[in-house]
Specification:
Largest sheet: 8 strands, mixed
Order of helices and strands: HHHHHHHHEEEEHEHHEHEHEEEE
Oligomer: single chain
Distance between the termini: 55 Å
Strand content: 15-25%
Helix content: 40-55%
Structural class: alpha/beta
Number of strands: 11
């Protein structure tokens, strides 16, 4: 592949992410990344920043690493001219000043190229708290009438923020509410048409979960209690999505007082060490991480999940909860919440949602 072909591939990937950002409500990143793609094509500072990463897995890898590195500059006070355009740093984005914002972005990349190049080595880790809206719904569905203490195991945990999800509060316009009223994390407007009936019933029957174990895994875990870890988490949240930043701040506060363990290990090896325990419900959950796991390793993950499901009994139960992209009809992919419980349990689809988890839409009533 020639240098020109590599730049074209990288530019196309950045353009793809620009469109995705527009669809997901980030006008700031849609505008910046559209211009960044042109800069890559022309061999500008952004081309220097992403050089060598044109073959990174996933169409979002290049753009989100570039954008995250620059956002970290802003949050660290190293790009004050750009900060005035970033709501996450106290600024305001005005689309009529998009060219000025882009000039400041391009200048920051050029001035801090070693910093940005270092960020290009880091896989994007958006420990998206909003996805707990789906994961919690799946857990309430899976808990059933037994109300057994929960052992929670998460694949692709990043900083493990969603391992504290039982301390979040979810609400919807129809009056649905679950979780501590004083939680610093509020997942508001959680359902498009109000919570489905089964969830409202489950929430009323089980107003509190007894989580007795919280463990996760990640090939490159982030310590949410460290300054560098908190910066990385904040940097990968899009600057103009202030509600997401507020949820992240609340989750970081919870992480400081609720212990959870995240092991530096792959998903398959992690699951190989998990066993069911009498008197508990063992839950394995994950959200939008499967595409980052090589196919061969994911095949091993499925073997381990099948092993745990086969071992499940009424006294030592098991559930698998996933919020992942799935093919929806012939047109493309959607993001769906699925739950499987017990030996021979059929996988049930409960809801779909945008990739950040809010709001969710019930797709069909679950089978009894």
């Amino acid at each position: 592949m020639t240098a020109e072909e590599s730049r074209e591939r990288a530019a196309a990937m950045v353009e793809w992410q620009a469109r995705a950002c527009a669809d997901l409500g980030s006008r700031l990143y849609a505008d910046l990344l559209t211009r960044a793609a042109a800069d890559v094509r022309s061999g500008g500072p952004c081309a220097e920043a992403v050089a060598g990463y044109e073959d990174a897995p996933g169409p979002d890898a290049i753009a989100l690493r570039l954008a995250g590195g620059v956002h970290a500059l802003v949050l660290s006070g190293r790009a004050p001219e750009l900060a005035v355009h970033y709501p996450s740093a106290g600024g305001r984005y005005d689309p009529s000043r998009a060219d000025a914002c882009w000039s400041a972005f391009r200048a920051a990349v050029a001035a801090e190229l070693p910093w940005v190049r270092d960020w290009m080595t880091r896989p994007p880790q958006t420990n998206e708290v909003g996805r707990s809206n789906l994961l919690l719904a799946g857990l309430l569905y899976a808990s059933g009438p037994e109300r057994a203490p929960v052992r929670l195991f998460e694949l692709g945990s990043s900083a493990g923020l969603n391992l504290r999800a039982d301390h979040f509060r979810c609400t919807a316009a129809d009056g649905y509410a679950w979780g501590p009223e004083d939680s610093p994390v509020v997942l508001a407007d959680a359902w498009t048409d109000g919570a489905p009936g089964w969830l409202s019933t489950a929430a009323a029957d089980l107003p509190r979960l007894d989580v007795v174990e919280r463990r996760g895994c990640d090939p490159a875990p982030i310590d949410p209690l460290s300054e560098s870890g908190a910066l990385a988490l904040r940097a990968y949240v899009w600057p103009d999505q202030t509600a997401r930043h507020a949820r992240l701040a609340g989750a970081l506060a919870l992480a400081a007082r609720i212990p959870a363990r995240v092991d530096r290990v792959g998903a398959a090896d992690f699951l190989a060490g998990v066993r069911l325990e009498p008197g508990t419900l063992t839950v394995v959950w994950h959200s939008i991480m499967r595409q980052y796991v090589p196919a061969q390793e994911w095949a091993r993950v499925e073997v381990e999940i099948d092993r745990l499901a086969a071992a499940s009994t009424p006294d030592a139960a098991f559930a698998h909860i996933a919020f992942e992209p799935e093919r929806v009809g012939p047109q493309g992919f959607g993001f769906r919440l699925t739950v499987r419980r017990g030996p021979g349990g059929e996988r049930v689809t409960l809801a779909d949602a945008p990739p950040h988890g809010l709001p969710a839409t019930a797709v069909a009533p679950p089978r009894p």
